[in-house]
Amino acid sequence: MKRRRSIRSAAKSAGGNGAAGKALALGQLDRHLGYFLRRLQLWVFQDFIATLRPMRVRPAQYSVLLVIAANPGRSQAAIGQMLDVERARLARMLHELERRRWVARRSNGADARSHSLYLTGEGEKALGKITRLAERHEARFAAHVGGRRHAQLMALLREFG
Amino acid sequence: MKRRRSIRSAAKSAGGNGAAGKALALGQLDRHLGYFLRRLQLWVFQDFIATLRPMRVRPAQYSVLLVIAANPGRSQAAIGQMLDVERARLARMLHELERRRWVARRSNGADARSHSLYLTGEGEKALGKITRLAERHEARFAAHVGGRRHAQLMALLREFG
DNA sequence: TATTGTTATACTCTATAACTATA
DNA sequence: TATAGTTATAGAGTATAACAATA
User: Fold this and answer.
1) A141 vs chain B: nearest CA distance in angstroms?
2) Distance CA A136, CA A147 (A)
3) Mutual angle of helices A87-99 and A76-83, in 10-degree steps
4) Does B38 contact A42 at a Cβ distance shorter than 8 Å?
5) In the 8-state DSSP scheme, what is residue B23?
6) In whole angstroms, what is the distance from residue B38 CA to residue B43 CA?
7) How far is CA A157 from the centre of its chain?
């Protein structure tokens, strides 16, 4: 993934003007949990994208594939609400996943408006490879924050989520 | 902020096809800390943006204003590296902040290439209002996840960050 | 040669609105 | 009237590349 220096090391080498060498202060940012959350979340997405690059899968696509796999036959509306993906965005994502022959849409007998979503055989196979890469990412994530902190965060956020 | 239903309630009402009413499974997503992190981070940004709407300030702008306030006179390069904002993006953000008379750029005597960044008087005044709204957001955040969890997350992530 | 700041392009994600076909 | 899906547009954020001025 793209190399990211820690706040401290970045600040240390951030010279180039009159105040060169003095570490930058976070200021009030230090009181905002959202700031730290955002930084970690960016790290995660960057590592995920880099790790999954061989399969050309983005985080949002990955989550859609997993939820279809776990809930075959459900509608776009159901998947979208579950993951908080706008239906407009999901429609275009599914076109792309259909183009790659990973997802199939079948018409739903009970309601002609809705499509039932399934993984194709090819999609299942691809998801196997994708899952192995995703596990590698998760391991790297745990190593990055420390296994203990990773577990603590998981417990805190999963119980909440 | 924009109303977001919980995973559970969204799943409950996600009907409309043959499997209507059955809650959707997270599948392997349940094993990814990044998924829960992302969901919480989205909540935070949406609440932040909604709370700060009266001042028309986005999270990235807010972080830049705070870091300039805490480190007056530093260069764009220093601020950008500190916050991991691309210099190209920061240049355009600063144009906008300059247009609103919140930030001033002065040339740096020691290095004619770099600009020293400062808040204007108007900028300080605006930041005062912004900070009060941001505190309201942070309180809402703590209420959302629970005060105890908010503190635990802050401790975990700040120590790490 | 490398760095600071700028402009430009392209892609992703988010947020809307408008449209169709069904219900 | 409301819902499922589609198409289109606009605004952010991210990632590059190329450039001028300066170091």
Assistant:
1) 9
2) 14
3) 110
4) no
5) P
6) 9
7) 15
Report how far residue B107's alpha carbon sits from residue B109's, in angstroms, rounded to the nearest whole number: 6
The SS3 assignment for B114 reads strand
Q: Exposure of B33 by Cβ count < 10 A (0-12 exposed, 13-18 middle, 19+ buried)?
A: buried
Number of neighbours of residue A157 by Cβ within 10 angstroms: 20
- The three-state (H, E, C) secondary structure of chain A, written as one string: CCCCCCHHHHHHCCCCCCCCCCCCCCHHHHHCHHHHHHHHHHHHHHHHHHHCHHHCCCHHHHHHHHHHHHCCCCCHHHHHHHHCCCHHHHHHHHHHHHHCCCEEEEEECCEEEEEEEEECHHHHHHHHHHHHHHHHHHHHHHHHHCHHHHHHHHHHHHHHC
Give the amino acid at B126.
A
The neighbour count for residue B87, using CB atoms within 10 Å, is: 11
pLDDT of residue B161: 74
| Subunit contact A59:B74, Cβ cutoff 8 A | no
Enter the pTM of the model.
0.87
* Structure tokens, A156: 């805190």
Q: Give A-chain residues touching B160 at CB under 8 angstroms.
A: 36, 40, 145-146, 149
- pLDDT by residue (tens digit) across A8-63? 333 333 333 334 457 899 999 999 999 999 999 999 999 999 999 999 999 999 99
